[in-house]
Structures are given as C-alpha cells and as structure tokens.
UniProtKB/TrEMBL annotation:
Keywords noted in UniProt: Endoplasmic reticulum, Heme, Iron, Membrane, Metal-binding, Microsome, Monooxygenase, Oxidoreductase
Main location: endoplasmic reticulum
Pfam family of the protein (one): p450
GO CC terms in record: endoplasmic reticulum membrane
One Gene Ontology MF term: iron ion binding
Source organism (scientific name): Nephila pilipes
Localization annotation: Endoplasmic reticulum membrane; Microsome membrane
Name of the protein: Cytochrome P450 9e2
Membrane topology, record value: Peripheral membrane protein
Family per similarity comment: Belongs to the cytochrome P450 family.
Amino acid sequence: MDVIASSAFSTKLDSHNDPQNRFVQAGKKGFSTNFSFRSALYQLIPGLMKALGIPFISSEPTDFFKNVTLQIMEERKRSGQTRNDFLQLLMDSAKEVAQEQKWDSTNVKDEITSNYGQDESTHQTTKNIANKKLSLDELVGQCVIFFLAGYDTTASTLSFASYLLALNPGIQNTLYEELREVLQRHKGELTYEALQDMKYLDNVISETLRLYPPSP
C-alpha cells in the first residue's frame, strides 16, 4: 500500500501504524468480500450485470481515488510543482501530445501519402491520428487502476515469496547474500540501478509468480 501510494501519487502513508487512513480504507473496500462475489458473477453473467448497472468494483473506492487524482492534478497545475511519480508521467505525456497536436493535420496526411500512397477514400485515418490524445478520464482511470490492481496483487505476491523462501532456506541465504552485496556496492541506497543488479531477486519473484499467479 505504502509503495503504491508513493509511486502513483508521491503520497507517504503509514498503513501499518495508521490502518484508518482513508487510502487504506478505500483499498480494502475495493477488494472486500463482495468483490469476489461480483467477480464470479461478471464471469458467469456479464451481460446481466452490465444491464443491471452493477459495477465490477464498488463505486465508493473508485470515486475516492478519482477525486484524489483530480485534486492532486489541480494542485500541481496551480502551483507548478512536479513530482517523480506515475501521475506526473501521465500528465507530462498528455502535455507532450497536446503540443504535438499543434502540427497541421496536412503534414500528417502528406507523411502517410508519401509512405503508403495516395488515399482517395473518405476514411478518417489522418483525422484520428491528429486528434488522438490522452483524455482526462483516461488519465484518471490509469491512476485508479494502478492503485486498485496493484493493491492486492502486490501483497499476495510478496506473501507467497516469503512463504517459498521459508520453505527453501538455501535459496533464502543466496538471496540474502546478493542483497547484502548489491547494497554494499551501492552504498546502502536502494536505487533503480541497484534493483537492476539484483538478478537473483528477479528470479525469485518470477518463480513466485509462476507458481502463484495473482490472477488466473
């Protein structure tokens, strides 16, 4: 939970010491007992569920994360602040696409014609390419999915990895030695480059996902 909130929104949580945190409560509601029941019904009778207007995930947690995302975006636009997180990457991407769309659509059409030949049809290919951008709903939706989809899957994968390491102390020791050696080489800092050097850790996680995939 803490890692996902930090990666997606640059928000610091203390879920272990503050279980009543609104982020924590919203995540739990998204994967309550009703979620498993709803998921089964959506696989059995998807058409009826959609016709009845029953959402796949409860609207309360999704609405909460939508509002949080919109508030953070508005605050960053107002203050001009930037953060090193998933939301900022999406905002920067949307901004770059918007700037690129200032090009004349004629340039796009000329490029397509030069590559694929003249198209005399009334197809809207060039218009679709010129107008394609990341909408606000898509941007917010990506952040909501990032949080909700990673909430339960990350926790279950780490739990299974710990279980498998407990059953295989030899592998656990090998992994421990690698972590110790890599961290020592990187002066105790767990950076992206340090993670890239943890090859055995990657093998452990991959094998855990093979044995216990988070979703069928």
